[in-house]
Design brief:
Mean pLDDT: 91
Distance between the termini: 34 Å
Low-confidence stretches: none
Number of strands: 0
Radius of gyration: 19 Å
Shape: elongated
Strand content: under 5%
Structural class: mainly alpha
Largest sheet: none
Length: 96
C-alpha cells in the first residue's frame, strides 16, 4: 500500500511541489516542511540521495511512522471493539 501511495505522490508532482514550497517559504526548518516525503526530497535536492534511494526512504520512513502510531494507539486505547458496521453503530449509540 505504501508503494502505491509513494508512486502516486511522485505522479502528481511531489518534487515540483517541494521545490515550490521551498521557494515560497525559504525556511526548511518550518514544522510543516519536516513531513514525510518533504524532508526526504530536501535531502534529494542536497544530493544525499538519488531518485531510487529517495523513493525507498519515503517508504521506510512512512512504515516507521505507522509503527509508532500503532504502538501509541495500543497504549492509549487498550480496548478494541471489532464488529460489523451496523453492530458498531449500535455500540456507539448505546454508549455515547
Amino acid at each position: 500500500r505504501s508503494v502505491k501511495r509513494r508512486q502516486k505522490m511522485f505522479e502528481v508532482g511531489l518534487i515540483d511541489e517541494v521545490a515550490y514550497l521551498e521557494k515560497k517559504y525559504r525556511d526548511r526548518r518550518l514544522p510543516a516542511l519536516k513531513a514525510i516525503g518533504i524532508k526526504e526530497v530536501f535531502d534529494y535536492f542536497n544530493g544525499k540521495y538519488n531518485l531510487q534511494t529517495l523513493k525507498e526512504k519515503i517508504i521506510t520512513n512512512t512504515a516507521r511512522l505507522a509503527k509508532r502510531q500503532q504502538t501509541f494507539n495500543k497504549t492509549q486505547f487498550p480496548t478494541k471493539i471489532s464488529a460489523p458496521l451496523k453492530e458498531l453503530e449500535n455500540i456507539i449509540l448505546k454508549n455515547f
